[in-house]
Amino acid sequence: MNAIEIRGLTKSFRGMYALDGLDMTVPQGAIYGFIGENGSGKSTTEKCICGHLVPDKGKISLFGRPYTDAGVRARVGALIENAGCFPASSVYTNLMMQAINLGLRDRKGQIERVLKTVRMEDNAKLRFKKCSLGMKQRVGIAMALLGAPALLILDEPINGLDTDGMKLMREILTDITQTYGCTVLISSHILGELEKIATHYGIIRQGKMIREIAASEMEGRAQNFVSLKTGDMQRAFTLLQRLGKAVQREQDELKVYDVDDTGKLTAFLLQNGLAVGEVKKHKIGLEEYYVGLMSGKEVV
Ligand SMILES: Nc1ncnc2c1ncn2[C@@H]1O[C@H](COP(=O)(O)OP(=O)(O)OP(=O)(O)O)[C@@H](O)[C@H]1O
Ligand SMILES: [Mg+2]
User: Fold this and answer.
1) What secondary structure, in 3-state letters, does the chain show?
2) What pTM does this model have?
């Protein structure tokens, strides 16, 4: 069973389509990285799933049930835009208010649990407005975790965080999936960071899902490529193309794909009178995949 299944989701604002027949499949237990340019429709999708926006058309199922089902709604936690906390109240009081709102029974126990999960147990008395950006994001996640959700929806939770903040967030998100078996949908522009935790990716463009791929599949299909510099780039380019290699000419280097033996490649160029400087081996990552897809040429 999938945690989220969306078919043909459409949402327009004043006649402009923010979502245009979007499909999405998020397997249970996944950390699903939701990627797309500004204005492509990520937040709108997340708001529709959370019931903050009403779609024009389309079907949303959560854990095999309609997303409007009260039982299933209670299992969704979200952090979209901001934590929705009272600035003058302490972190603890904010969590208590939310726990009461949700009608939770073991409120103290649950608050202790979520504070520990987001590494905020020593800052519970701090007023929300005194929290750093990283802390605020973590409090937002704690608020969303109250009620032990099976699905957590996070809109750009790592935006603006420093390296340590991102690392902490990574640990927390991995914990949430591993310890609580929670599925996480996370939108972000920070692809290098997303790549470290996501198990699946969905790439959206102009309100349509243009590709969904498991991280394992991307890894398995990823080609290696070699970048190199020579004195005569044009000649090297032509020679390598004639050899049947997939070559790409960049500003000051050549990218040669599907290279098993770098030694053979440089020897070939040397035999043709071209000295090779700076040879580097690379593996295609999420960044290259995304850029390739956006520019219409898929590199994986
Ligand atoms: N409440 C609204 N009223 C009018 N237009 C809206 C509203 N919310 C979103 N839009 C429009 O819908 C489109 C999709 O916006 P959305 O916020 O979902 O994009 P996004 O992918 O989250 O972008 P970003 O990466 O900048 O957060 C945009 O063109 C946006 O201007
Ligand atoms: Mg957004």
Assistant:
1) CEEEEEEEEEEEECCEEEEEEEEEEEECCCEEEEECCCCCCHHHHHHHHHCCCCCCEEEEEECCEECCCHHHHCCEEEECCCCCCCCCCEHHHHHHHHHHHCCCCCHHHHHHHHHHHCCCHHHCCCEHHHCCHHHHHHHHHHHHHCCCCCEEEEECCCCCCCHHHHHHHHHHHHHHHHHHCCEEEEECCCHHHHHHHCCEEEEEECCEEEEEEEHHHHHHHCCEEEEEEECCHHHHHHHHHHCCCCEEECCCCEEEECCCCHHHHHHHHHHCCCCEEEEEEEECCHHHHHHHHHCCCCCC
2) 0.83
